[in-house]
Design brief:
16 helices; 13 strands; Rossmann fold; alpha/beta; six-stranded parallel β-sheet; 429 residues
Length: 429
C-alpha cells in the first residue's frame, strides 16, 4: 500500500513539479504531499502580483545564530517578503518574535522549495550547505541544489572561523554566492581552493557589530543579577572565561564522554582559585542534563563561589560581553579564540593531546598571545595562566597583520548592513 501511495504521489510531483529532485529523499511523505498541494495553489494564483522574497532555511542553532539577525534587518524593507523555513523545534519564542516583526514562518522542510515556480523573484538563504560536511549539512545542500536546479538564486553566509576544515567546507558551499567575514578566509578560498572570486563577497562578521557597543557596567549588572556571589568574586580576582564545547570534538575516539570529563577535571584541578574565578559559557549544543561542566567539579570546589556556569539560554550574558570582562580566554578549537584576539585578549587552547582539534588553530599564534597546552602536562596550564595574567606579553607577529581585516574585514558596526546590501544586490540583479 505504501509503495502504491508513493508511486501515485510521484506522479503528481512530476505533473506540478518534477519527479526527482535533490531534496526529495529528505522529505517525509507528508512533506511531499504538502509540497504538491502548495505548488498547486501557487500555480492557480498565476494572476497574483509577485513580491520579491528572501527565503531562509533555519534548522540548527548555528543557522539561528547567523541568519536570524539578518532576517530581522531585512524585515526593515517594507517591499520585501521575508520567509523563514524552520522545520526543527528551535526556540518557539524566537518564531513568535519573527512573526511579530512581519516574517512568514513555515515549519515544513518542503516549504523551502516553493520559490521554484517563480525563480526570478526569490533568493534562497543558507548557512549550512557545505558538501564537505554533507552528513551534517544534508538538508541545506539538497535544498540549495534543488533551488539552483530551478534557477532560484542562492546565497550562503559563513559561520565558521579560519580553521582549515571550516575553510575547506566553505569552498564546497552549494549556494552560488558566498558571503565571508575576513580577508584570510577570502584569500584561502581563492588561492588554496580555487573558488572563483566572483562567487565570494567580503562583508565582515555581522555578529561582531555588537563588540563596539559593549557596556562593561551593563555586563557586570547582568552578572550580578545572575549570580551575586560570583559577581563579588569577579570584583576581587582575575577572570578566566571558558568557552568551548563538550560534544562532537572527540566523536572519532572510543572514549569520547570520558575525555570531556577528563578535560574539565584538568581545568578545575590546575587553576588557582585563590587568584582567579572561572566563568563558563556553555555552547548551544552542549548537553544540560547531565551537565558535564557541573558534574566534573571536584568535591573541594562544590561550595566555591569562584565558578559560574552560564547555560546557553541566558542570552543577556553572551560570549562577547563575558570576553569583555575576562582577562584570559580558555578554549579548545573555536572561533571565539579569534574574537578574543580581536579584542586584545590572551588565549590558552587546552586539548587532550597534539592530535586533537586544537591543532587546527596553531596559525593563531601568528596573531597575538595564543598558547596551546595538553592534558598530559598539568604544570603547563598553571604556567600558561600565570604568564598570561602576570607577565608582559612577548613580542609576536601580530604587528604584521591587521587583525580586523584578517578576521572580520571591518569592525565598524556596519557588517550587518553590508550583508543585507549584498543579499539585496544579488536578489535584484
Amino acid at each position: 500500500m505504501k509503495s502504491v501511495l508513493n508511486w501515485i504521489l510521484s506522479g503528481f510531483e512530476s505533473i506540478v513539479f518534477v519527479r526527482d529532485y535533490p531534496l526529495k529523499s529528505r522529505l517525509s511523505f507528508r512533506d511531499r504531499v504538502s509540497l504538491v498541494i502548495n505548488l498547486l495553489i501557487v500555480r492557480s494564483q498565476f494572476w497574483k502580483a509577485r513580491t520579491s522574497e528572501i527565503r531562509a532555511l533555519i534548522c540548527t542553532p548555528t543557522d539561528e545564530r547567523v541568519l536570524v539577525p539578518v532576517l530581522f534587518k531585512l524585515l526593515e524593507k517594507p517591499t520585501l517578503k521575508v520567509t523563514a523555513v524552520i522545520p526543527s523545534t528551535l526556540n518557539p519564542q524566537l518564531k513568535q518574535q519573527l512573526r511579530d516583526a512581519g516574517c512568514q514562518v513555515k515549519e515544513q522542510l518542503s516549504d523551502i522549495l516553493m520559490p521554484c515556480l517563480h525563480p526570478e523573484q526569490t533568493l534562497g538563504l543558507f548557512c549550512l550547505d557545505h558538501r564537505f560536511f554533507y552528513t551534517a549539512h544534508a538538508r541545506g545542500v539538497d535544498a540549495a541544489e534543488t533551488l539552483k536546479q530551478f534557477g532560484v538564486k542562492t546565497a550562503s553566509i559563513q559561520h565558521g572561523g579560519t580553521r582549515q576544515d571550516s575553510v575547506q567546507g566553505l569552498a564546497s558551499t552549494t549556494s552560488e554566492r558566498l558571503l565571508v567575514w575576513g580577508e584570510r578566509v577570502y584569500r584561502e578560498l581563492i588561492h588554496q581552493y580555487e573558488v572563483p572570486s566572483e562567487r565570494i563577497q567580503l562583508v565582515g562578521n555581522h555578529l561582531h557589530d555588537r563588540i563596539l557597543n559593549i557596556d562593561r557596567h551593563q555586563v557586570l549588572e547582568a552578572l550580578k543579577q545572575f549570580s551575586p556571589a560570583f559577581w563579588s568574586e569577579v570584583c576581587q580576582k582575575k577572570v578566566i572565561l571558558l568557552a568551548t564545547c563538550l560534544h562532537t570534538e572527540y566523536r572519532d575516539r572510543p572514549n569520547e564522554a570520558e575525555l570531556y570529563t577528563a578535560y574539565m577535571q584538568y581545568l578545575y584541578e590546575n587553576l588557582d582559585f585563590s587568584q582567579v574565578c572561572l566563568v563558563i559559557k556553555m555552547h548551544p549544543g552542549d548537553q544540560k542534563d547531565p551537565n558535564l561542566y557541573r558534574a566534573s567539579i571536584p568535591e573541594s570546589l562544590k561550595q566555591s563561589h569562584s565558578i559560574c556556569i552560564i547555560e546557553p539560554q541566558h542570552t543577556q550574558l553572551d560570549v562577547y560581553g563575558l570576553l569583555h570582562l575576562s582577562d584570559v580566554l580558555v578554549t579548545r578549537a573555536s572561533t571565539v579564540a579569534e574574537e578574543a584576539l580581536l579584542m586584545n585578549k590572551k588565549v590558552i587552547a587546552v586539548d587532550v593531546d597534539a592530535s586533537g582539534p586544537a591543532s587546527a588553530y596553531h596559525h593563531l599564534e601568528e596573531y597575538g598571545s595564543y598558547k596551546t597546552v595538553y592534558l598530559s602536562a598539568p604544570e603547563a596550564l598553571k604556567q600558561a595562566v600565570h604568564a598570561a595574567l602576570f607577565e608582559p606579553c612577548p613580542a609576536s607577529n601580530s604587528a604584521h597583520f591587521d587583525l580586523e581585516r584578517e578576521f572580520t574585514y571591518r569592525l565598524d558596526g556596519n557588517s550587518l548592513q553590508r550583508t543585507v546590501d549584498a543579499l539585496l544586490q544579488q536578489l535584484y540583479s
